C-alpha cells in the first residue's frame, strides 16, 4: 500500500487473525500500524495483494457494506452536532433500548442528563476527550460489529478515563475480532496475539507472554517503555 508512488507504507506483509481473536499491533511511529487499519477499511486501496475476511476479498464488497460491518475507535474521536442517539446510530437502525444499553456499558448512562437524547455540540465540544472516546466505543457496541479496529484509543486521556476505556474494550467485545494499535503497552497485554511491525512489514508475532519471555523486539519495546505504561503488567 502506498500513499505516494515509490514509497510503500505496507509491503510484503502477511498476517492471519482468527475469528474472535484480539490482535495487538506494536511498532515505532511510521511502522505501518494505522496504515493496516486503513487497508482494512479501504480508505486507501492496496496496490498489490488482498485482504480476506472469511475468505472474501474485501475489494469485492461494496464500501457501504464493508464499513457497516467493521467499526473503528479512532485516535481522535469524531462527533457531530445533534443528539447522542444520532451520533451512536446515524443510520437509525438500532432500538432505543440498545442505545441506552451501550451508554450503560461504557459508564456514561449516569453522566448524560437526557440519556441518548442529550444534545451534542459541534465536534462534541460539550464533552471531554475521554467522554467522546467512550461515545465512540458505545457506537461500536450499538452496531454489534464483529470486527472492531482500535487506533490508540487512550493515547491522550488521563489514567481514570483510560481505565474506563480499557474496561469497556475488555468486557464488551469478547468474541469479537479486534485489531488494536497500542500506545500504552498494557492495553494489549491481554491480546491473543501480538504483531510487531517495522517499515510496513510484520517482523514478529506471538502471544504476549511468549514474546516477553524471549529476546524479542516486543520485549525490547517493553523494556524501553515508561514505567507508567507497564504498571498493570
Automatic annotation (TrEMBL):
ABC transporter domain span: 1-224
- One Pfam family, short name please? ABC_tran
Q: CDD domains attached here?
A: ABCC_MRP_domain2
Membrane topology note? Multi-pass membrane protein
Keyword annotations for this protein, in alphabetical order, are: ATP-binding, Membrane, Nucleotide-binding, Transmembrane, Transmembrane helix, Transport
Instruction: List the subcellular locations.
Output: Membrane
Give GO MF terms, alphabetically: ATP binding; ATP hydrolysis activity; ATPase-coupled transmembrane transporter activity
> What InterPro entries does the record point to?
AAA+_ATPase, ABC_transporter-like_ATP-bd, ABC_transporter-like_CS, ABC_transporter_C-like, P-loop_NTPase
Main location class: membrane
> GO cellular component annotations, sorted alphabetically?
membrane
Q: Which family does it belong to?
A: Belongs to the ABC transporter superfamily. ABCC family. Conjugate transporter (TC 3.A.1.208) subfamily.
Tell me the PANTHER family matching this sequence: ATP-BINDING CASSETTE SUB-FAMILY C, MULTIDRUG RESISTANCE-ASSOCIATED PROTEIN LETHAL(2)03659
**Record-given protein name:** ABC transporter domain-containing protein
Please name the taxonomic classification of the source: Eukaryota, Sar, Alveolata, Dinophyceae, Suessiales
